[in-house]
Amino acid sequence: MRAAAVIPILALLSIGPADMCWSRQTAKVAPRLDAAPKPHASRVALKCDPSKFRIILDVGHTRESEGATSARNIPEFDFNLQLAKRIEEKLRSEGFAETRLLVTGGKARPSLFTRVAAAKSAKADFFLSIHHDSVPDSMLENWVFEGTKSYFSDRFTGYGVFVSHRNADFTDSMAFAHLVGMQMKAEGLPFAVQYTQPIMGRYRHPLLDKDAGVYGYDDLVVLMKAAMPAVLLEAGSIINRDEELQLSSMERQDIIGTAVSTAMKEFCDAHRSP
Fold it and tell me: Which of 54, 81, 15, 4 is nearest to 222 (CA)?
């Protein structure tokens, strides 16, 4: 298998106080359900030639701060890396030759700023962050897996797509988010519905596109600080025992990779140079 192309990471930037997070996860910023801020004006009109279009595939979390823990005690980072590599292969096979993986080291909060700076330094045209989902600790149940006390929640399932009104190009971010959500839906995958429910408490998000499963996440650093269109994809819930197994399969990874690459082709076709 061809080795994944990985872009270099910049030195860490100075940052402010750490965000609120779930105790079994990292860098999950508590959203606010206030009225959405006014979107930034779009940048200079985006133009897309697939062979030159620079896509950054951000592998969510780091080896030092691995994100959520699955029902079978596998770090989210491992799921993110495996899926991002598959998506990279799919995009490159569709002619997006400048697709690059972004793998970041260090602690959770500083790594968010490092990702944004690295994407800007690489002159990226698009930023797509790959994650897998869990639930707040209050929803977890106990079980024993291979002799080890573990945690699960089979209550929710499905993908989620997230954008920020504060992104430099909210319009294009939302356009791609809709396309990838619709492709996931066309593959028979449901989107996660729990984010609008009161049970999520401070972890609720506003649903911006009920057809495609697109939510607002206005204060997430990698979305609001990115200098290019930016979308975060939660591929599914690894704390759900059945969905964890599906997400670890090559079949599901191929489905998601195809959904992303098809959506990117559609997005690019709408932004081709005259």
Answer: 15
Q: What is the 3-state secondary structure (H, E, C) of 33-96?
A: CCCCCCCCCCCCCCCCCCCCCCEEEEECCCCCCCCCECCCCCEHHHHHHHHHHHHHHHHHHCCC
Coil/strand/helix, residue 104: coil
Which two tokens mark 73? 């005690």
The token duo for 12 is: 């860490």
Asked whether 219 and 31 are in contact (CB, 8 A), the reply is yes
Q: Give Cβ neighbours of residue 58 (< 8 Å, ≥ 6 apart).
A: 84, 102, 104, 115, 119, 127, 128, 129, 130, 222
What single-letter DSSP state applies at residue 103? -
Element (H, E) at 114: helix 108-121
Q: Is 122 helix (H, G, I), strand (E, B) or coil?
A: coil
| pTM, two decimal places | 0.86
132-161: per-residue pLDDT in tens? 999 999 999 999 999 999 999 999 999 999
Amino acid letter, 143 = W
Domains of the chain as residue ranges with CATH: 55-269 (3.40.630.40)
Instruction: Write out pLDDT tens, residues 48-83.
Output: 999 999 999 999 999 999 999 999 999 999 999 999
